Amino acid sequence: MAEQAERSPRIERIIEERGEKGRVARLVIDHPGKLNVLSRALIDEFGEAIRSLADVAKLRVLVLSGAGERAFIGGADIRDLARLTRETAADFITALHRVCDGLRHLPVPVIARINGYALGAGLEVAAACDLRIASTEAHFGMPEVRVGIPSVIEAALLPGLIGRGRTRRLLLTGETIDAAEAERWGLIDWRLPAAQLDAAVEELIDAILACGPEAIRLQKQLIREWEDLPLSQAVERGIASFASAFESDEPQRMLGAFLAAAARRKDRGRR
After folding, report:
1. What integer pLDDT is reported at residue 261 of this predicted model?
2. Which are the catalytic amino acids?
3. Residue 211 and residue 228: Cα distance in Å, rounded?
4. Do 129 and 73 form a contact (C-beta atoms < 8 A)?
5. What is the 3-state secondary structure (H, E, C) of the chain?
6. Are 94 and 49 in contact (CB under 8 A)?
7. Backbone φ, ψ for residue 235 (5° rounding)
8. What is the Cβ-side half-sphere exposure of residue 231, based on CA atoms within 13 angstroms?
9. Of the candidates 29, 52, 175, 220, the residue with the CA atom closest to the CA atom of residue 114
10. Which of 112, 214, 102, 106 is CA-nearest to residue 161?
11. What pLDDT does 49 receive?
């Protein structure tokens, strides 16, 4: 345990080869002795790790997790927050926003593997991910008001996930909720025992890898745009995205394969 506590905080970057299906990236926030809290130095490293993924050819999906069994991200480092001034506060929180924004604008799906506490900055990072899968032991909260600061930046995504009333409840009380409540609210997409978490993440990865890579990228971009657009403009963007899908041969290849498989099943049924 002492060795774990003394290890320098870092962001571990792993790239996995999945043959013809492409590559899977994993980023692990590794500060387990401190619940994987984000210091300013770790925030900067986190942002750089996300930006570096733009250079990974055939990237299909990113899985984000926290080291150890206690936390996804336990928040921003209180020691760093306590040293902020009016002049340095905006720079600190902007750096954290860039991390979240980088996840939202990464062209491939981002899966949050939430294996424990996701508090404050941790919940904002999770909200910036596309899919959230959590262990039954996970807990969620925005406790900033309890230490004299408001919840900001990607906390603005919460009304779209859980509604305005529940967002007010979290942000104005600093309450922490468990994984069962988070699932009922729609804050997480799946909840299961910790021992099953990795297998469930792999199933989700396999489902994404089975889809058209260009279609997935177009879909993620469109979903992100829908968050900012009125309905009529969102529909128009969808029409443009649909048309642009046919700039590559992916639809013809995958539709052709689907029709060929259907024909083979029909022939077998006649025998």
Report:
1. 87
2. 124, 144
3. 26
4. no
5. CHHHHHCCCEEEEEEEECHHHCEEEEEEEECHHHCCCECHHHHHHHHHHHHHHHHCCCEEEEEEEECCCCEEECCECHHHHHCCCHHHHHHHHHHHHHHHHHHHHCCCCEEEEECCEEECHHHHHHHHCCEEEEECCCEEECHHHHHCCCCCHHHHHHHHHHCHHHHHHHHHHCCEEEHHHHHHHCCCCEEECHHHHHHHHHHHHHHHHCCCHHHHHHHHHHHHHHCCCCHHHHHHHHHHHHHHHCCCCHHHHHHHHHHHHHHHHHHHHHC
6. no
7. -65, -45
8. 0
9. 29
10. 112
11. 98
Single-letter amino acid code for the residue at 22: G
Largest CA distance in the chain: 78
Residue type, 137: E
| pTM of structure | 0.94
Nearest Cα to Cα of residue 185 among 227, 140, 120: 140
Burial bucket for residue 247 (CB in 10 Å: 0-12, 13-18, 19+): exposed
CB 60 within 8 A of CB 213: yes
Show the tokens assigned to 207. Answer: 């489902």
Chain segment 90-130, per-residue pLDDT in tens: 999 999 999 999 999 999 999 999 999 999 999 999 999 99
Domains of the chain listed by start with CATH number: 2-209 (3.90.226.10), 213-270 (no CATH)
For the record, the structure tokens of 232 come out as 């009529």
Q: What is the rounded end-to-end Cα distance, in angstroms, of the chain? A: 65
